[in-house]
Amino acid sequence: MPELDLQILDPAHADLARPLRRILALLNVKHGIWSIKFARDGEMADIHWQTLRLPTTTDVLTFDLRDHPRPAHEGSPIELDTVVCLDEARRRTKELGHSLRDELLLYCVHSLLHVQGYDDITPAEARRMHGREDELLKAIGVGPVYAQRKMPHVKRQTAAIKNRKSKIENRKSTREAP
Question: Beta-carbon neighbour count of residue 28 at 10 Å?
């Protein structure tokens, strides 16, 4: 696995690289590739539909590209593609009164934590994951970003995602059967 390669695919958001490298160091992630793409609502809704059959935009999508994802933990090597929705981030910053940069950092950290052993399917998992997001953002001087919100739609979306993941895994196992 190569040394850590972080690619921010939009030069307008290249300023995220430095704080994200600090987050990677705090999580002890030393090897891997992480590509971050920024999308508008229409493109994000298309990707959301293609991958999870959900007909809406969303804040962030995480694509773990490891061939055989093992149970991950902090410090696990990564092969990660993250897609962040700029329009959703702008709506949230307007609503919550913090910077676009902080919201984008939150989405990126959220995606990264998904491949470091965190999930947000159950309320307990979500509390653990969002608590860790805020801990990391505080550690780099941004402060808590997630703690400012209440997101009732998360439970609905995560249940739909869990169901979709199960269907995808079933299809994969069917194809791999001898």
Answer: 11
